[in-house]
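Good morning,

Attaching, inline, the backbone tokens for the sequence recovery test we're adding to the shared suite. The designed sequence is right after.
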């Protein structure tokens, strides 16, 4: 039987299918990008090696080193050992490794596991610690929880961070089993384990107790603030469109000197108990303050490091960090202030200082007299404090002008006296007759000397 109807079958599509590019290494997702507890690059390398069932040593020597053949001073990537802390930091080593890892994993977010975004802002000195630090309670909690990854948060590497924010425990910096300090990345590193004795570092029933004394209340308050503000920086990093420029540090200092001390660098430096020339160098952008110094300044000014660097105007209270343990600390610290701080009486006393017909006092002296820290007075009565400070500065300026006028008059008389004695009125000869010999440092006094010589025709 002949087929009367021929059936049409769909034809094969022989066009090539577009295959997305394949990554050489697994595209392992980093933990916590955009949060205060973002993972560190060294911890990520340990996890990446584990995912490939090899040691970090094998991953680095067989894969990564060939892409970074250069040496860093005396070492290369494979031999750096004690320097591996730099891989989480702001320098070339971190940049080279991030570039290679991003190309091998086809990820574009691995730079957020380092501080590369802050390269222009923080100097390297005392920024990150060279050894690992960890909270054994966090490890144990992640281990017991089914859906949590054991990893190494970047915040544990800051030299300024010494506590775990969630457990109020000092971070461990020595393996409790073999008593060794651990490098951020070693040949046999695994998150949560010692790379030397291979023991688990989380808290277990027979965990050797720490020889550290428990943190004091003050340390907890300080550390809670440090972790909150550094956590905010780390969480914000991926949202910054590009790395911040060095100039913003100098601009921030200029802005705060203007807002807190009406542009008076010396008064601002006194308030923070920092040498004036240091503040001036920071304002001029000649040097960058270390992170520890910025932290102390921001703590005194009650502003987060991020706001200090990026906010155009002063914020009363800035906080964008998850609230958990802070709540407790803020309650205890502000309650203490509220109970003890007598607002009405202090305001009255400050007004009295301002209206008194006495010699104006600097705010440091006023604060001492009232028995409150100066920053507390500035926080509660910024306008009154600024007015008192301005009065004092005005008084100091007027006194200086008077003093110089007096010096000029003394110089004039001394020139006449010396001249009648037949002596040439040199600066040295006149200085001997003055109450304050150092006054020739002022150019107005030197001009007065020249004018007095002209009067007696000793100078053209
Ligand atoms: Zn912890
Ligand atoms: Zn060990």
């Amino acid at each position: 039987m002949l087929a009367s109807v021929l059936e049409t079958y769909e034809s094969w599509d022989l066009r090539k299918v577009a295959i997305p590019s394949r990554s050489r290494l697994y595209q392992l997702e980093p933990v916590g990008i955009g949060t205060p507890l973002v993972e560190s690059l060294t911890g990520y390398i340990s996890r990446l090696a584990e995912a490939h069932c090899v040691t970090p040593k094998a991953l680095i020597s067989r894969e990564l080193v060939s892409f970074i053949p250069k040496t860093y001073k005396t070492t290369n990537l494979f031999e750096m050992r004690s320097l591996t802390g730099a891989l989480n930091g702001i320098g070339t080593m971190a940049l080279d490794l991030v570039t290679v890892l991003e190309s091998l994993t086809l990820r574009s977010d691995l730079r957020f596991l380092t501080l590369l975004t802050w390269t222009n802002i923080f100097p390297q000195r005392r920024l990150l610690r060279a050894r690992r630090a960890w909270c054994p309670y966090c490890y144990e909690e992640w281990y017991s929880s089914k859906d949590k990854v054991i990893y190494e948060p970047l915040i544990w590497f800051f030299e300024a961070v010494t506590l775990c924010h969630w457990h109020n425990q000092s971070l461990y910096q020595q393996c409790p089993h073999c008593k060794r300090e651990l490098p951020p990345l070693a040949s046999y590193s695994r998150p949560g384990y010692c790379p030397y004795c291979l023991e688990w570092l989380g808290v277990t029933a027979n965990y050797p107790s720490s020889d550290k004394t428990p943190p004091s209340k003050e340390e907890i308050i300080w550390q809670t603030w440090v972790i909150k503000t550094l956590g905010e920086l780390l969480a914000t990093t991926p949202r910054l469109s590009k790395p911040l420029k060095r100039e913003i540090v100098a601009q921030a200092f200029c802005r705060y000197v203007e807002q807190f001390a009406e542009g008076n660098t010396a008064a601002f430096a006194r308030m923070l108990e920092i040498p004036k020339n240091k503040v001036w160098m920071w304002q001029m952008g000649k040097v960058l303050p270390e992170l520890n110094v910025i932290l102390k300044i921001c703590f005194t000014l009650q502003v987060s490091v991020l706001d200090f660097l990026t906010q155009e105007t002063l914020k009363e209270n800035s906080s964008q960090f998850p609230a958990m343990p802070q709540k407790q600390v803020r309650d205890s610290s502000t309650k203490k202030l509220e109970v003890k701080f007598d607002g009405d009486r202090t305001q009255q006393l400050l007004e009295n200082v301002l209206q008194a017909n006495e010699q104006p006092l600097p705010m440091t002296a006023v604060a001492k007299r009232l028995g409150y820290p100066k920053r507390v007075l500035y926080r509660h009565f910024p306008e009154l404090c600024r007015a008192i400070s301005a009065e004092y500065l005005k008084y100091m300026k007027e006194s200086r002008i008077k003093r110089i006028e007096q010096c000029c008059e003394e110089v004039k008389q001394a020139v006449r006296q010396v001249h009648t004695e037949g002596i040439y009125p040199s600066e040295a000869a006149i200085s001997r007759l003055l109450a304050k010999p150092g006054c020739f440092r002022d150019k107005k006094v030197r001009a007065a000397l020249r004018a007095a010589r002209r009067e007696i025709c000793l100078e053209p």
